[in-house]
Specification:
Rossmann fold; globular; six-stranded mixed sheet; alpha/beta; 23 helices; 3 domains; 20 strands; 614 residues
């Protein structure tokens, strides 16, 4: 039985020439788990919002949507509120009360349930989601992961039959995101709730889903099982394949050598060879399946003395390639600062302390750090540890009560506002909408260089008009087809690109970025990394706060772990992620028992090929 049926549905935003959705036909079976994936701006969020009329954007619509066999537009708001749950990207955007228990009860009160029923459902949800310990706390005290879990619990208290999630983990750290997605899988498995989710983090979502739907420019281009969808994308060399789980990418990257039963020459006959053949017949999507496939393919056993030495040394072929300057991996050379002392620091913090109020505990505690001129420094850590506060101190939005901060060798307090923000710092906040002040994307870009496109800016060569500068930046950030749209009508990834474009127009010496890859598709992440590398080549320093482990592992020069108000460790990505058990990449978790230093899918693929050549 189909719970949702979308039939030849099209949608276009006002004043936009093209359609955001074009003749979409899609069915959701009751109790299914469907993941909707595609590049940012392809129409995923627009499609999800059509499934709840109160959230549907204004525009031209054609086609029909059925829910439970009835036209969605004929179903009342009360029924939709109860039966269709919707979790958005920003955890704060859905919270409407001051206390956790108030939030759990709010939806039920709005639907008119009596006190006894509300108390029972609230108690049930608090127990099911394990939030009893912070049941009476204020919502402002919660971390991002806790807020998103609260949003989910408040929705599930109304017992919806359809749960829609629009990139719900985009602002969560990897561990909180994993916990949240495990809860979603549990809801689907235990309660039979139909789940429809968009997500750029596919490592854990793909293995949990029954079905994958791939979108591109408002069209559905493929439907099938997640495994089939991944291999279909790989077979067409599609840009979206770079978003697939690391085990799948590694499997696909060894396609040319899988025809051999196992790679080790001593295990190409007998039971191990048979196991290798069987393993090669199924594409792994989880770390567990990937490890099993890798072990069978390599004929790996723990007593291989010739591999044991490599395991202890942590050296592997990909390491050698990076050290010699080869460019087989996209992150090369992420060790450009690996063996170099910070001799030319452009950002310096000495014993910095900060608290939000005299009576509140310290958020930043004796922080000292140096960032090299031209370096790409990634600061990672859990939600609520103080990373964004640190960025606000470096950008002088907040001031420490103890310690000193220097930018370019000068005390940050000695700079004027104009000198600091127009000559040195370009700051991209976590919420890109905080930068938007105009009615169109085009006007947002002109706003950064001072006015209308007819005048020639003194900051650029006299023969370069502002419209040429804006056109070049729009092309660089793939905004040229969106210039007439309102910034708030853009997808999350498109808003991130617009915020980046505005900051880059200032030509800063230092880029301070707070979660810049949030909402970006895998393809544009690589282009974004290329933009940053070009800026580094011109001496621009990049300081980035991120939960995107894979991006930092591939492209960062140095990574620091922030915990309890300070940096507990910092290293080049290879050493940083290889030393972690949980806060590391899927590729490293999959292959670390053989190659501890491999942190990206490219590393593992290179090591497999090198092993074959031995």
């Amino acid at each position: 039985m189909n719970l949702v049926e979308i039939k030849n549905y099209s949608f276009s935003y006002p004043d936009c020439a093209g359609e955001a959705l074009h003749e979409i036909s899609l069915s959701l079976r009751a109790g299914s788990f469907t993941v909707l994936c595609g590049q940012s701006g392809c129409g995923k969020s627009t499609l999800l919002r059509q499934l709840k009329t109160v959230l549907s954007p204004h525009g031209k619509k054609q086609g029909e949507i059925y829910f439970g066999g009835k036209l969605l537009r004929d179903i009342g708001q009360r029924t939709q509120s109860a039966r269709i749950g919707f979790v958005m990207q920003d955890p704060d955007s859905q919270i409407v009360t001051d206390k956790v228990w108030h939030e759990l009860a709010f939806g039920l009160e709005s639907l008119g349930y009596d006190t006894a029923a509300i108390r029972l459902r609230v108690a049930e949800m608090a127990s099911y989601f394990g939030i009893q310990q912070w049941f009476y706390r204020g919502v402002e005290e919660l971390s991002g992961g806790q807020k998103q879990l609260l949003n989910l619990a408040a929705i599930m208290a109304m017992h919806p039959t359809l749960l829609i999630l629009d990139e719900p983990t985009s602002q969560l750290d990897p561990i909180a995101a994993s916990d949240f997605l495990e809860t979603v899988k549990k809801i689907n498995r235990d309660l039979g709730t139909t789940v429809l989710m968009t997500e750029h983090r596919l490592e854990e979502v793909f293995p949990a889903a029954d079905r994958a739907v791939v979108m591109e420019t408002g069209h559905i281009i493929y439907e099938g099982t997640p495994e089939e969808a991944g291999l279909w994308l790989h077979g067409r060399n599609h840009e979206m394949f770079t978003a697939m789980p690391a085990p799948m990418q590694i499997y696909a990257g060894t396609e040319g050598i899988r025809s051999r039963a196992v790679l080790d020459p001593r295990h190409r006959e007998g039971p191990d060879a048979k196991a290798g053949k069987e393993a090669s017949a199924h594409c792994p999507m989880t770390v567990r399946a990937g490890r099993g496939w890798l072990n069978d393919t390599l004929g790996w056993t723990e007593d291989f003395a010739y591999l044991e030495e490599k395991e202890h040394s942590g050296k592997h072929a990909a390491d050698k390639g990076r050290q010699s300057g080869e460019t087989g991996s996209p992150g090369i050379f992420r060790g450009s600062f690996a063996d170099r002392a910070v001799t030319d620091p452009v950002i310096e913090l000495d014993e910095v302390w900060f608290r939000y109020d005299r009576d509140l505990p310290d958020v930043v505690k004796g922080l000292s750090m140096r960032v090299q001129r031209g370096e790409f420094y990634c600061l990672l850590g859990g939600n609520g540890t103080g990373k964004s506060t640190t960025l606000s101190l470096i950008s002088r939005v907040r001031k420490p009560y103890r310690g000193r901060i220097r930018i370019g060798g000068r005390d940050i307090r000695s700079y004027s506002e104009r000198e600091l923000y127009q000559s040195w710092l370009g700051v991209a906040p976590q919420n890109p909408q905080s930068l938007f002040v105009k009615k169109t994307v085009e006007l947002e870009l002109y706003e950064m260089i001072g006015g209308t496109k007819e005048r020639v800016s003194a900051e650029f060569p006299v023969d370069m008009e502002k419209r040429e500068v804006v056109a070049q930046m729009a092309a660089l950030t793939h905004l040229d087809s969106l210039m007439g749209q309102h910034p708030y009508d853009l997808s999350g990834g498109e808003q991130q690109r617009l915020a980046l474009a505005k900051i880059l127009l200032l030509r800063p010496k230092i880029l301070l970025l707070d979660e810049p890859t949030k909402g970006l598709d895998a393809h544009f992440k690589e282009e974004f990394a290329g933009i940053l590398k070009k800026l580094q080549a011109h001496g621009v320093t990049v300081f980035m706060i991120s939960h995107d482990i894979e991006f930092c592992a591939r492209h960062g020069d140095r990574c620091g772990m922030f915990f309890d108000g300070n940096i507990v460790t910092e290293n080049p990505p290879g050493d940083f992620f290889a030393g972690n058990n949980f806060y590391t990449t899927s590729a490293n978790r999959m292959a670390r028992h053989i190659w501890p230093g491999a942190v990206t899918a490219e590393d593992v693929i290179a090591d497999i090929h090198a092993r074959l050549a031995e």
